[in-house]
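User: Some background: our group keeps a shared notebook of sequences we're curious about, and every so often someone picks one and asks for a predicted structure to add to the entry. Today it's my turn. The entry only has the sequence so far, pasted here. Could you supply the structure so I can complete it?
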Amino acid sequence: MFISNARRFATGLALVVSFTQVAAAADILIGDAKSQPESLTVAPGGVLIVGSASSPFVYKVRPGSSTAEKFIDASAEGAGTFFFGMLADGSSNTLWTCQLTPVPNTTPAQRHTSLRGFDLTTGAPKVRWNLPGDNTTCNDFAIGPDKALYISDTATSRIYRLAAGASTAELFLESRVLMGIDGITFLNGTLYVNNVIFNKLYRIPVDASGKPGQPVDIWMDQPVKGPDGMRAANGKLFVAENGSGKITAITINGDKGSVTVVKDGLKTPTGVEPAGDTLWFTERGVGKAESVPMPK
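Assistant: Of course. Here's the predicted structure to add to the notebook entry:
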């Protein structure tokens, strides 16, 4: 009888834990199923901000809401304008975004891209810097220990650096192995980038003067496919794998990485954002922003 009751208690406890985890998760449609949310970020106060790769809009979702509201409208920027990277910088009250606009009548297709900074509260424009080149892809960014913004350009194999308070970025690093650079983040003060084309992860060494060296290949203990958005939290790198439909966590030990699957079965996840005890991600293939409890 005692064993039976204990089993019932354990089963009930497991159900309570399961329901708690479900309640902590979120599943939010961003506009509609065709909105293609590429990247997302969480602003101070818990406001979720999500860009669209199929429209000229940036959306926000207020805490406790499941409705996405239009926050930024760039429809006047030209036909086909859309957004990639999203990053909320509470210290400067700035939403950093990557804005992309196709160049008309180009074969193969080209696009001009801009780093845009908007007021995090009102959405008013603050900063605009056009990436140099005829065909660029501003993709994502991270704020470094020096408070500068580091920007990845997928099409030109480059990383740019925008000093704190500046309005014009400078070339930080250009390397052949960065053709396909996508996600970029700092883990414990060290810069890491991934490559969405060649399924790679790199550490960028930086000397005492701030000068970067050649990217160092991180050997991972299992394959990743289409590593896209990447953020750091709790001593790990969190990566959206758009090619495998997974959100993964990578633990770095020197030049090696141990990969753990956090969530799979997704349709083209492209963005990821840790926020407290919650891990947010975008599922571009179904037009949603979703979350799971932060892995321990």
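Suggested note for the entry: The chain has one helix and 25 strands. Helices lie at 2-24.
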